[in-house]
Amino acid sequence: MTWQAVQAKVQRRISERVWEPGALIPGEKDLAEEFGCARATVNRALRQLAEAGLLERRRKGGTRVTRHPVRKATLDISITRHEVEQRGKAYSFNTLSKRLAAPPKAISAAMKLPPGEKHLHIKTLHKADGRPFMFEDRWINTLTVPHLLDADLSQVNANEWLVENALFTHGSISFSAAGATKYQAQQLAIEPEDAVFIIQRSTWQSDHSITLVKLAYTQDFKMRTQI
Amino acid sequence: MTWQAVQAKVQRRISERVWEPGALIPGEKDLAEEFGCARATVNRALRQLAEAGLLERRRKGGTRVTRHPVRKATLDISITRHEVEQRGKAYSFNTLSKRLAAPPKAISAAMKLPPGEKHLHIKTLHKADGRPFMFEDRWINTLTVPHLLDADLSQVNANEWLVENALFTHGSISFSAAGATKYQAQQLAIEPEDAVFIIQRSTWQSDHSITLVKLAYTQDFKMRTQI
DNA sequence: GAGTGGTCTAGACCACACA
DNA sequence: GTGTGGTCTAGACCACTCT
Question: How many Cβ pairs closer than 8 A exist between chain A and B?
Fold first, then answer.
């Protein structure tokens, strides 16, 4: 009996309501005995179901079927070039502007930057088969990533350079919809106020921010995943 | 040495480039020896890093540091009431319409419905502190979920009823931006063509579709997570 | 064929949360 | 205290894949 088999059996019992939502299920030892396998095998199966939100486990309290399962959707965050190529299109990009500047307050606060320093501000248009695909507005912390100033960003864009050269330890990401600004609209070849899909991401190396980036996708962009 | 400690050490070596992107790292046996723990402990640590996209593992081929890590963002898919309450607001909803109807082709194709049957079509406005929060347009397969027709949906909305009474085995979800339709705009108290955040979700019980739902959120809605 | 990761086992001890 | 899940161990066998 593999852990996948145990997991499948347990999942069946949940979906067929043999074990009702909120109910306590047998302990690992009992299940191991029933399925004829080691407790570690049951543990792995149940642990993963708990991570998926279907079970709630507590030491001493036992394992319960979640009443209102909070299912998890996992999105792949890959570099833009791969996103485009996965759609079977040719990737290219234009660096629209790239300069050192003092970031506005909202940016420096979000990146926890000390005041007075100048940081790198890059605007890039990413294209699929030569047509506008996504507009990127990025600030990069020059204190955390000083080497970037020496890098050649004509062949490799900032996104890819950072992914290879400044691995982040953690970050946050948000998804939303907004009306396109005039500049975004002009670059993406749409009308101002047309809906765009916004991804905002900030990444960190322990306590130091690396970059804060806002991506604007045209309306036909969909982010998909399985649950 | 716990698996978390092993994982932390490995992660450090990756972020400090002791092991470069693309490089082969020592085998599990060697690492177990170095860290003074069992191979299973190393295995668990590395397996999880591989799931996170930082490592690539192959039998016989060994373990490599991923060159272009595809990081995973995990979004919690909870019921709308919880979403609203987590924002510290009072939840309420209006059922705008609820009737049996023959679904349009796009819907019946996506839900793999045999032609000719009527299914339940529900439109709901979800509110936070009495103000429009999200507009929901849902089709429910009456063949898979016949009991729903008897349910009282005045107290509990369709979403919550389904979560409790028709656990899904799998599904797909997509996120995008769009201009609001006239009807959506009217219900959400915004202007037509204003940007709305769209979540489209379909859920299944093995081969049978349960429901297909399109959620339209107003512009101030952001979906956040950590990576 | 051989080397790597993937998994299972049986037993043990620990950590937490409840009485 | 006591019972549950969380984890570690040492050893074993299997599955994949590269040569």
Answer: 157
Q: CB atoms < 10 A from the CB of A11, how many?
A: 17
Token pair of B47, please? 């397996």
- B172-211 pLDDT, tens digit per residue, is 999 999 999 999 999 999 999 999 999 999 999 888 999 9
Chain centroid to CA B170: 11
| Contacts with B211 from chain A: Cβ below 8 Å | none
Q: Which residue has the closest alpha carbon to C3 C1'?
A: B60
**Cβ-based neighbours of B12, under 8 Å, separated by 6 or more:** B18
pTM (2 d.p.): 0.90
Bridging pattern class, strands A208-217 and B55-58: unpaired
Q: In whole angstroms, what separates CA B222 from the centre of its chain?
A: 14
The percent helix, strand, coil of chain B (3-state, each to 5) is: 30, 35, 35
Closest CA to A67 of B165, B149, B203, B213: B165
Residues of A in contact with B225 (CB under 8 A): 172-174
Alpha carbon distance A204, A200 (integer Å): 14
Q: Is the distance from CB of A162 to CB of A135 less than 8 angstroms? A: no
Q: What residues have CB less than 8 Å from B164, skipping those under 6 apart? A: A21, A67, A68
Residues 6+ apart with CB under 8 A from B151: B161, B165
Q: CA triplet B45, B48, B53: central angle to 5 degrees?
A: 125
For residue B16, give the DSSP letter: T
